[in-house]
Amino acid sequence: MSKRLPKMKTDEAVKNLLSGDISDYISSQNFSVVSFEFEAKDKSITLRVSEHLLKKIRNLAKKRHTPYQKVIRQAIEKFILEAA
């Protein structure tokens, strides 16, 4: 069983962890998929949705530890890619 990653609040703490053997920390429990958004977001839109839908989106975003606007953007992007 792998060790849990310690909470690190400084760059120095990260450097200290990485300077040693980290093989005890390598497991799927300690890592998650991360997506990076490089394209500039230079346009904004106004969108009306039901309170129920917005609540579901916010709950999903909370589970993913990401802003709810990003969840909406990802859903739109996925729909566009699949529709093409």
Please outline the helices and strands.
Elements: H1 11-19, H2 51-64, H3 68-83
Helix pairs in contact: 2-3
Structure, explained:
The model has no long low-confidence stretch (mean pLDDT 88). The protein is an all-alpha fold. 46% of the residues lie in helices and 0% in strands. The protein has three helices and no strands. It has one domain. It is elongated, with a radius of gyration of 18 Å.
Task: Give a short synopsis of this structure.
With 84 residues, this protein is mostly helical. The chain has three helices and no strands.
Low-confidence runs = none
Helicity range: 40-55%
Q: What radius of gyration results from the CA coordinates?
A: 18 Å
Mean pLDDT: 88
Number of helices: 3
Q: How many separate domains make up the residues?
A: 1
Q: Which term fits the overall shape? A: elongated
Strand content: under 5%
Helix-and-strand structural type: mainly alpha
- H/E order of the elements? HHH
Distance between the termini: 44 Å
What is the tally of beta strands?
Answer: 0
Largest sheet descriptor: none
Keywords:
elongated, mainly alpha, 84 residues
